[in-house]
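pls ignore typos typing on phone
uridine-5'-diphosphate-glucuronic acid + seq
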Amino acid sequence: MRIAVVGSGYVGLVTGACFADLGHEVVLVDIDEKRLEALRTGKVPIHENFLPELLARHLGKRIKFSGDLQAATRASEAIFIAVGTPPTESGDADMSYVESVAREISGAIDDYKVVVEKSTVPVYTNEWIRTIITRNGADPEMFDIASNPEFLREGTAVTDFLYPDRIVVGVDNERAAEVMRKVYGPLTSGWYYGRGDALPRPDRAQVPPRLIITSAKSAELIKHASNAFLAMKISFINAVASICETVGANVQQVCDGIGTDSRIGPRFLNPGIGYGGSCFPKDLLAFRAVAKEGGYDFRLLEEVIRINEEQRRRFLKKVRSVLWTLRGKRLGVLGLAFKGGTDDIRESPAILLVEELLREGCRICAYDPAAMEHAKEALPEGVEFAPDPYQAAKGADAVLILTEWEEFAILDLEKLRGVVRYPIVLDGRNLYDPAAMITHGFSYYSVGRPPALCEETPAGRSGKKERA
Ligand code: UGA
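k done
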């Protein structure tokens, strides 16, 4: 099929590259000429597993980059809108980019096309897109609108796309449904998975995925409701972690105990310093605004947001209670991205914590495997950046783990013990077994678990085991 994807941001690029890998002819459209030029020369502007491989595989063959939206629309059967919908001050999503794309598309609808919303949008957007396209002169019989929310996680977006749990398509008639079945046919028929050059299948993936066809409005709600539910799960376990801390229980054991109930499930039950990123914080605000507009006060979401913010404050309090005063203390910070596997620092709890620690007078030396470039732009001058975790921890009064990067879970603890000033680790992501940390001579504080305490002798001398 010939497909246009509008917007070469994170969602658009992944979607375009994956469609090309499914055998479609893709034109990726953007208004940013500089970005297009970089993409044409093979530069990949975001950190995403497998994306460079897919773009290189299809560049100039099944994937082209263009600034001409009208030409791309004319040439395509389906036009996917994947432009940004940033939050306004009131929390509503700003739909002006979507609107301007809809306006421009309208002049190029010369035979039947399906215009697909891929951006995360509030309910009723499909109706607005239809209205705008018709208002600008397109024949209403010549196009339909579909809502096809994405459930991609940063870092694993490419494999999430190609091995999804489900594909949700919201359409209001059979003609549009047929086009969308064709778009995803290579996945739903299993054809892609039988190919020798298919990307490796993630452990949990069930293939082929189910195609769920709903009304356009239901599909729009599915996206917001999914993200809100996942964020709620995280805030729930963070609240339970706080209770564990007060009663001396272990949240990891509680997670095992509740997560094995198949109705609850173990995923997205990892306690920590709260969720961040470009999706959950924004989508929760947008979903709450949508509910409010319809006359429903979705206070549960407010509580989810409040617990999330509280979680960061609790961690900061923990740092304070371990180090007593913060002014002048040197902290080795491991992790700046909002989660492991990405260079994205948007709404990153790690960045927010570092800012707070700087305000309290700490000296920070940070390391992140991918997000340091972005962090350098975002953080004030004076923050040091190290080329590896051990240099970040060198001479530190305490080491803070703030992002769940896999490489932080397998640190050489002997080496770490040898470089810090005091063997104190505050882990905001529960990456270590407390007993193992004591064995390596560290006092270890994590989230929702009793602290594991060691005699905090300076580096070079071994700590005596006290209690776990
Ligand atoms: C999220 C959803 O998981 C995707 O399904 C959705 O498509 C995407 O938003 C979107 O709307 O575009 P993403 O923001 O990439 O994906 O990241 P997640 O893996 O969901 O993590 C979000 C945040 O929650 C991170 O800060 C992570 O550290 C935190 N988290 C996640 C926890 O604190 N505990 C967990 O158990 C899981």
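The mean pLDDT is 94. Residues 241 and 448 are 4 Å apart (CA to CA). more later
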